[in-house]
C-alpha cells in the first residue's frame, strides 16, 4: 500500500498535466467497471436476447461515451482559445 502511495505521488509530480486529462481517462476506463462485466456475463451464461443484462451493458457503454464526449466538449473551448493565442 505504501508503494502504491509513492507511485501515485511520483506520477502526480512527474506529470502535473494529468489532472486535466482525468475526465478523458475516466471516460475511457469506465467500461471496465460498468459495461464489460455485463457483456462477459452475457457471453458466459448466454441468456435470452435483449434481457435485463443486455440493457445494463448498453447503459454502461452509453455512460462511458457520454462522459468522454462531455469531457471533450468541455475542453474544446480551451483548445480553441489556445489556438487563437498561438495564432497571434
UniProtKB/TrEMBL annotation:
<feature type="transmembrane region" description="Helical">
    <location>
        <begin position="51"/>
        <end position="71"/>
    </location>
</feature>
<protein>
    <recommendedName>
        <fullName>Amino acid transporter transmembrane domain-containing protein</fullName>
    </recommendedName>
</protein>
<keyword id="KW-0472">Membrane</keyword>
<feature type="transmembrane region" description="Helical">
    <location>
        <begin position="6"/>
        <end position="39"/>
    </location>
</feature>
<keyword id="KW-1133">Transmembrane helix</keyword>
<keyword id="KW-0812">Transmembrane</keyword>
Amino acid at each position: 500500500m505504501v508503494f502504491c502511495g509513492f507511485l501515485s505521488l511520483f506520477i502526480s509530480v512527474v506529470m502535473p498535466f494529468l489532472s486535466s486529462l482525468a475526465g478523458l481517462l475516466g471516460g475511457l476506463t469506465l467500461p471496465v467497471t460498468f459495461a464489460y462485466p455485463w457483456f462477459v456475463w452475457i457471453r458466459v451464461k448466454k441468456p435470452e436476447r435483449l434481457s435485463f443484462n443486455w440493457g445494463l451493458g448498453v447503459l454502461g457503454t452509453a455512460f462511458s461515451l457520454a462522459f468522454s464526449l462531455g469531457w471533450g466538449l468541455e475542453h474544446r473551448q480551451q483548445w480553441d482559445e489556445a489556438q487563437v493565442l498561438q495564432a497571434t
